[in-house]
Amino acid sequence: MRFKNKSRKPTTLRCNAGRRCSFSVLVWSLVGCLLLLNLYSFISQKDARRGGTHFHINQHPHIRELEEVEEENIQLPPPRKRSPRAAKRKPKRPTTLIEEFLDESSQLRNVFFPGQRTAIDPRKSSENDTYYYYPGRMWLDTEGNPIQAHGGGILYDQRTKMYYWYGEYKDGPTYHAHKKGAARVDVIGVGCYSSKDLWMWKNEGIVLAAEENDETHDLYKLNILERPKVIYNEKTGKYVMWMHIDDTNYTKASAGVATSDFPTGPFDYLYSKRPHGYDSRDMTVFKDEDGIAYLVYSSEDNSELHIGPLNEEYIDVTQAMRRVLVGQHREAPALFKHGGTYYMITSGCTGWAPNEARAHAAESILGPWETIGNPCIGGNKVFRDTTFFGQSTFVLPLPELPGSFIFMADRWNPADLRDSRYVWLPLRVAGPVDHPLEYNFGFPLWSRVSVYWHKRWRLPYRWQGKK
Ligand SMILES: *[C@@H]1O[C@H](CO)[C@@H](O)[C@H](O)[C@H]1NC(C)=O
Ligand SMILES: *[C@@H]1O[C@H](CO)[C@@H](O)[C@H](O)[C@H]1NC(C)=O
């Protein structure tokens, strides 16, 4: 592909005016070739720095397995009689897969939210099922209860050599606070689960609990607590949790902070604020290799993202802040890094309904950020246009497989939010992007970010819990 580009360029300098200009054509061709060769070697070096070209990696059988996508062929059900209740709420029969997905009385319900019988259950897994992820199925912890860690993130703790999965514990009834309010569950707290293999999860309890009585408290149960993320601060030895804090109507739009001496809590809630004085809703934190951590949040009514470094203790923002993806209306940011380049996956803003994911890339975390397209591969068109009926929440690097990550998404179930599902899929950073920019002469400045659809998959066997 690169070679083709390289040889094509000089031919575009062809002179049609006959021999008179052949000398200048020769000179300009040579100059062009040299320039392109230079650019080519610069790009190759960059690629090498990023951990080799996708060519070599593709040949690795483990990677091939991760990239072998499956297709989905879900047929819309034939017209049917609807219950009066459903008919009243939405008079017309759903005509698209997305409408079926959102219709709680849909005949396809079981396709998107399979029942208990097919749950991933580490207590009674056979040789055939051990370590396999089934995106969208119920996922039980080591006690047999559905994992409650929605909108979550994962921390790998060097001290305990364990993975900790934090997320919204939503095991309560779903209701609407008022007519126009979004479906909600009262705040219960932040759930924490531990694992050595990223598959079998032990419930470590609620590590930051809701406030039952004090209506003025940020964590009052009628408020909102979403997208908790935890990072470890080497200087203070504290585990620091950041989260989206809001009121029922999402008008407070703040970021909250809590800290703990242990990954399993309990976390002490410190405070919330509007970072840099701006509204802040969906958010994440990212700790860079140099120990500097950043807060990333949707702002200006979700029309743009803001990124800014935290202070040394990670318990506050600093004055520095950049607006990125301005006017692009993105939320649910999940940020990761590969070979010195920063990548991010975001969703659109359509409430609980799924929409198309986008990948973004940047040389500096503070931007500029370039949008490089929809990362989803496989399934079918509707699957790819809806992030596999999910919404991004976190991207977890697999340390022994450079360029490989787990993409974590939530498949929200607005009819019963506690029964929202997890969509975990392999993510790879490799290969050229779909639509190279004009000004880079057809050479990819970024690698493609790809999330591969699988009904069933597992991490490469060699890696499995054998660290
Ligand atoms: C495992 O899978 C094989 C082939 O699909 C099947 O024959 C076998 O019965 C399965 N074993 C268990 C314990 O489910
Ligand atoms: C939320 O909005 C509704 C409808 O506008 C209003 O009745 C209610 O008082 C608001 N609640 C809060 C906590 O602001």
Automatic annotation (TrEMBL):
Source organism, top-level taxon: Eukaryota
A single GO molecular function term of this UniProt record: beta-galactosidase activity
Keywords associated with the record: Glycosidase, Hydrolase, Membrane, Transmembrane, Transmembrane helix
Chain ranges passing through the membrane: 21-43
Classification via PROSITE patterns: PROKAR_LIPOPROTEIN
Biased composition (Basic residues): 79-93
SUPFAM superfamilies: Arabinanase/levansucrase/invertase
Keyword Transmembrane: yes
GO CC field: Golgi apparatus
Region of interest called Disordered, as start-end residue ranges on this chain: 69-94
InterPro entries membership: Glyco_hydro_43, Glyco_hydro_beta-prop_sf
Annotated family: Belongs to the glycosyl hydrolase 43 family.
Protein's name in the database: Uncharacterized protein LOC107822725 isoform X1
Gene: LOC107822725
